[in-house]
Amino acid sequence: MYNVITGILFECWDILKEAAPYVLFGFFAAGILKALIPEDLVAKHLGQNGTRSVLKASLFGIPLPLCSCGVIPVAIGLRKQGASKGATASFLVSVPETGVDSIAITWALLDPLMTIVRPIAAFITAVVTGIFINMIPDTKEIKANPPQEGCECSSLSNSEGKDLPQKESLGRRIEKGLVYAFSGLLKDIGGWLMLGIGIAGVISFFVPVGFVEQYLGGEYSSLLIMLVIGIPLYICASASTPIAAALVLKGLSPGAALVFLLAGPATNAATMTVVAKHLGKTATVVYTTAIAICSLAMGWVVNRIYSWAGIDVMSWVGHADHTTESLVYPASAILLLFLLLKSYLPEKTSDESGCGCHEQPGGG
Fold it and tell me: What's the confidence (pLDDT) of residue 65?
């Protein structure tokens, strides 16, 4: 038992070392984004019906530093302010499927091609979902309570009916954005990221090389199985990445990994409840079906791209294993663990310390 526990811990440590510098960079970029994007920008551009608002919602959601639970109050606020059903749904898809943090982790644990393909696939999935949901006629007005004041996750949507705050200096906004990124956002995502790394460590230790090829060797069956696993799983984009990387190391195709990366974060109980309540039951069926079909289609396309280009994702992973010998990687891992532990310590009352919507371990 001791050997098993230590073996899993060593695997987790190796994965954490590979990802840590990129995770820290991702949170830094998230803080800068929060500082530079005006709070009323989203509502201003998404408060229209039609394909244009769907495209804007899908594009804007890709780098936005919000996770699966954080996007919900923002989406509700946007819908209340007049965003179309399609734009709201597109926002709910693109935001949790990717982000600056998960893009950085994808570069660390998978390969450059997947780093590019993942946000493109998320954008396409969000656009298709939004367009189809816009075809459903409105049947009732939205009757949602506005997000709690002071909630960082809903800060983009709660400016309605409030006086605009005095404009702060760029330096102050960057400071507040970084404090938020390395406290509230890190607390929101970090717990789930550690869970994902833990699951990846278990997979790496117990699953022999070739196991996935033997039992999930069929291309279409592997795509479907990863879809079935991903849809009910409550996991954020950052946490899903190390799991997908561990499965790829055991023989899973890049396309099947992408299916998991798309379906897992975008579909969970909380999101589906919001869609059903505020967009309707028909929209819920369309939402899930569109994500499933797009995920499978994009997974198939990605397998064709890797095959056509002759790219072996294992070569990039092997390169990552060697680069972790640098002191930067363990130092980054220790710093990340320190910041994560610090984010869970009791803090003084502050607008940047997180919010009541992140009571679960690490959010999601």
Answer: 62
Cβ contact 101:63 at 8 Å: no
Question: Which sign, positive or negative, has the C-alpha torsion 334, 340, 341, 347?
Answer: positive
Q: Which amino acid would we find at residue 274?
A: V
Could you give the CA distance from residue 82 to residue 270 in angstroms, rounded to a whole number? 22
- 269-273, Cβ contacts within 8 angstroms, sequence gap of 24 or more: 269/234, 270/68, 270/69, 270/72, 270/234, 270/364, 271/68, 271/71, 271/72, 271/92, 271/96
- 31-74 tens-digit pLDDT: 787 777 665 665 666 656 678 888 888 888 888 766 666 676 66
Taking the whole predicted model, whether its pTM rises above 0.70 is answered as no
Residue 45's pLDDT is: 67
pLDDT > 70 in the chain, percent: 71
**CB 30, CB 65: distance < 8 Å:** yes
Least confident residue range of 104-113, 184-193, 212-221, 235-244: 212-221
**Residues in contact with 284: Cβ distance below 8 Å, sequence separation at least 6, in sequence order:** 272, 275, 276
